[in-house]
Specification:
Residues 51-454 form the FAD dependent oxidoreductase domain. Keywords: Oxidoreductase. One of its GO terms (biological process) is mitochondrial respiratory chain complex I assembly. It is a single chain. The chain is of the alpha+beta class and 485 residues long. The protein has three domains: 2-89 and 203-300 and 414-475, FAD/NAD(P)-binding domain, CATH 3.50.50; 141-194, no CATH class; 303-412, D-Amino Acid Oxidase, Chain A, domain 2 (2-Layer Sandwich), CATH 3.30.9. The protein contains 13 helices and 20 strands. The strands form four sheets. Strands 1, 2, 8, 9, 12, 13, 19 and 20 form an eight-stranded mixed β-sheet that branches. Helix 2 packs parallel to helix 8 and helix 2 runs parallel beside helix 12 (440-457).
Length: 485
């Protein structure tokens, strides 16, 4: 298998790629680096930047933060939509949990959670009027399992404890005693994260990162990257952190073409480029011919939609019907065994519910054909598919009403639903941090840190995330995360 994988890798980066020297029809800019201390005005496109980040969501800005925190390299973030109306960051829930089955995902959660709990130490700026609160609510996460999945939950629990996670196993009786409004009839056990888990406001975290990055000198450009230009020369690259790995022939991307809101185009040279385009990362990769006949292994990331509903229990009850208890302020973030998610919404008495079960994908995709991503979700979908699951788990919700709804989007990795984090094996100065499949917001801080270490040191130093490399597609080595939702 290893020999076959290496053969495929060397074939993908063979010298025949020299035939395709330019990826862009536009003139390539000469690279003359400007001072890394220059603070550019917003929307002023610099002639060159040492590190270009494509995507102004939370992963893009987290990467920009860690780069400037660790170095003096000039950084430019390019985002096509200044409102981020269709971004995974603003449409997501902002939950965080340690309850995964793979060590890397657990470690990223622990790293990010520690940052969130102490975010003011990291993101504070001298002008205190800009400091904001991200509303981190450490209420914990309760994951439920039936008899079929109980053994897997127990195994994951032991791994989580070994890595320092603060989680505890609960019996059916424990769950009923602590949260009497949960129907545990078909539940065998549960796992509750009593520390380092909960939820936060991703829009506020994004804003805090942008403010901090502004004070640190990061340049921000509103525009869409529509093309890349590459050096005409191929180079032999060796991997200093993996001496047993064969060297590969590589070619560096050198500049990008940006379409600006006024219809004009700008060109920016760079030393390294980060693909942090979230659900649209696959399209950005295609601009560098990743997935073409020359580089046949595509970046397997595409938008995946989820209907999200805000519900409120009705205040008027029929005295002739049985009255069930309702969730209170101690409600954790609940992940039902049927992939139903329930989150208390502040002190409003409302709850956010949705399901990411794959069987709903064709239904939602069909409904999204003629709708914008952030449009109201289909309420018929709620009553037909979500409400039966919700009422079964929490009988007190049998009379809920939908107060609002929207359609969220995530960067879905169609191959193994796990993060892709590495440089590309041919375009070695294009760094990929995509495909978290719904975990991107909670792991953004850790992803940004790891991406920064790859750029600055060519290896991971804080967390070992080598298994998330793009190379796994050549070697057919999927990351098998059982709690990938």
């Amino acid at each position: 298998m290893l020999k076959t994988g290496l053969s495929q890798l060397n074939y993908a980066v063979s010298s025949r790629l020299v035939k395709s020297r330019k990826l862009s029809k536009f003139t390539r800019l000469p690279l003359t680096w400007s001072s890394s201390e220059v603070i550019y005005r917003e929307n002023q496109v610099p002639r060159n930047t040492e590190i270009l980040i494509v995507g102004g969501g939370i992963i893009g800005w987290a990467t920009a933060f860690w780069i400037r925190q660790s170095s003096k390299h000039s950084v430019t973030v390019v985002e096509k939509d200044s409102t981020l109306a269709n971004s995974a960051t603003l449409l997501g829930l902002g939950s965080i949990r340690q309850q995964f089955s793979e060590p890397e995902n657990i470690q990223m959660s622990l790293f990010s959670s520690h940052f969130l709990r102490n975010f003011k130490e990291h993101l504070a700026v001298e002008d205190h009027s800009y400091n904001i609160d991200i509303d981190f609510n450490p209420q914990g996460c309760l994951m439920l399992a039936d008899a079929k999945n109980a053994d897997s939950m127990k195994e994951n629990h032991l791994l989580q404890l070994d890595l320092g996670a603060k989680v505890e196993l609960l019996s059916k009786q424990d769950i009923s005693t602590r949260w009497p409004w949960i129907n545990t009839e078909d539940i065998e056990i549960g796992c509750y994260g009593y520390e380092n888990e909960g939820w936060f406001d991703p829009s506020k975290l994004l804003k805090a990162l942008k403010i901090k990055c502004h004070f640190m000198g990061v340049n921000y450009v509103v525009g869409e990257v529509i093309d890349f230009d590459a050096s005409p020369y191929t180079l032999k690259y060796r991997f200093p952190d993996r001496p047993l790995r064969p060297s590969v022939m590589s070619r560096r991307l050198s500049s990008a073409t940006i379409s600006l809101p006024d219809g004009t185009r700008a060109y920016i040279g760079f030393h390294s480029v980060v693909n942090a385009a979230g659900p649209w990362a696959g399209r950005v990769a295609e601009l560098a011919e990743i997935g073409s006949e020359h580089l046949p292994i595509r970046l397997p990331v595409e938008p995946r939609y989820r209907h999200v509903f805000v519900v409120r229990p009705k205040s008027v009850f029929n005295p002739e019907e049985k009255i069930y208890p309702l969730p209170g302020l101690d409600t954790p973030f609940i992940i039902d065994q049927n992939r139903l998610f329930i989150e208390r919404r502040d002190l409003s008495g409302e709850f956010i519910v949705y399901s990411d079960h794959p069987k709903f994908d064709p239904i939602i995709e069909k409904q999204q054909n003629d709708l914008s991503c952030n449009s109201s979700a289909n309420k018929e979908f709620f009553h037909e598919h979500i409400k039966p699951l919700l009422c079964k788990r929490i009988p007190g919700f049998k009379d809920v009403e939908v107060t609002s709804s929207w359609t969220a989007v995530c960067d879905y990795n169609t191959w193994d639903q796990n993060l892709i984090l590495s440089f590309h094996p041919f375009h070695i100065n294009m760094y990929l941090c995509n495909g978290s499949s719904g975990h991107g917001t909670q792991h953004a801080i850790a992803i940004g840190k790891a991406t920064t270490e790859l750029i600055l040191f060519s290896r991971f130093k804080t967390l070992d995330l080598v298994r998330f490399s793009f190379d796994r597609f050549y070697f057919n080595e999927a990351v098998k995360e059982s709690n990938c939702f």
